[in-house]
Amino acid sequence: MKLSSVPDSLSVLVVDDHHLLRRGLIGVLSEIGGLHVCGEAGSGEEALRLARALEPDLVMMDLRMPGIGGLEAARRIRIALPRVRIVGVTAWEDEPLQRLFRHGFAACVGKSVSREELASVIERVMGGDCSRVAEPQPAIVRSNPFDQLTGREMQVCLLLLAGARPADIATRLFISVKTVHTFRYRILEKLRVATDIELARLATQHGLMGSAAPERHSPIIGA
């Protein structure tokens, strides 16, 4: 299969923190003529570095990664390289699309996207049609968004809501400060909020504010 409406030398940077998923996407891309994978990255920080070094035409960006993550990496890449096109890759069916577009994404596809679907999206994006292509399925309705957090994530969330600092949370749960920041990132992403203020507002709406924080020696589950 070959792209018909883009240059023969279309270069692609593939970003995903899961090695096997990254290799799988590269395999799908390799079956599409008219493009070549110029690099691969396993984090948002590495994606930013490689994007600046390689200046690809297209970036296939996993949205949910530790560190700065896909959203922030996309925003920074678009600032550094305004001409680059970025397509989000997600395993979630209810990504907040308008938020993605504000961060510079041209489109969003699922991780199970077929070769034909992916080729169609790339053609439309590189051809200048950024009219919100390949949107995921409608949002999944949940009665309480906090129900999707794991046990460990809920522990960190409650401590954040109680005003604990990352260093204090790390000491209390016997984890590193870096791990606390990773959990905070996951919590904000899962709950579709961008700041601690928005997190507190959402928690208030669902009756979590004022919940007792876990005891120091409480069992840690769901990590």
Describe the structure.
The protein has 223 residues and is α/β, with parallel strands linked by helices. The protein has two domains: 10-126, Response regulator (Rossmann fold); 145-205, Winged helix-like DNA-binding domain superfamily/Winged helix DNA-binding domain (Arc Repressor Mutant, subunit A, Orthogonal Bundle). Helices cover 43% and strands 13% of the residues. It has helices at 19-30, 44-54, 69-80, 97-102, 115-126, 151-161, 166-173, 177-191, 196-205; strands spanning 10-15, 35-41, 58-62, 85-90, 107-110. It has a five-stranded parallel β-sheet, with helices on both faces. Helix 1 (19-30) links the parallel strand 1 and strand 2. Helix 2 packs parallel to helix 3 (69-80), helix 6 (151-161) packs across helix 8 (177-191) and helix 7 crosses helix 8 (177-191). The N and C termini lie far apart (42 Å).
Calculate the terminal CA-CA distance, rounded to whole Å: 42 Å
* CATH class categorisation of the largest domain: Alpha Beta
Q: What value does the average pLDDT take?
A: 79
Question: How many distinct beta strands?
Answer: 5
Shape label: elongated
Q: Specify the biggest β-sheet.
A: 5 strands, parallel
CATH topology (level 3) name of the largest domain: Rossmann fold
- Note the beta-strand portion: 5-15%
Q: What is the spatial order of strands in the main beta sheet? A: 2-1-3-4-5
Helix- and strand-based class? alpha/beta
Total domains, how many? 2
Q: Counting H and I runs of at least 4 residues, what is the number of helices?
A: 9
Sum up the structure in keywords:
223 residues; Arc Repressor Mutant, subunit A; elongated; five-stranded parallel β-sheet; Rossmann fold
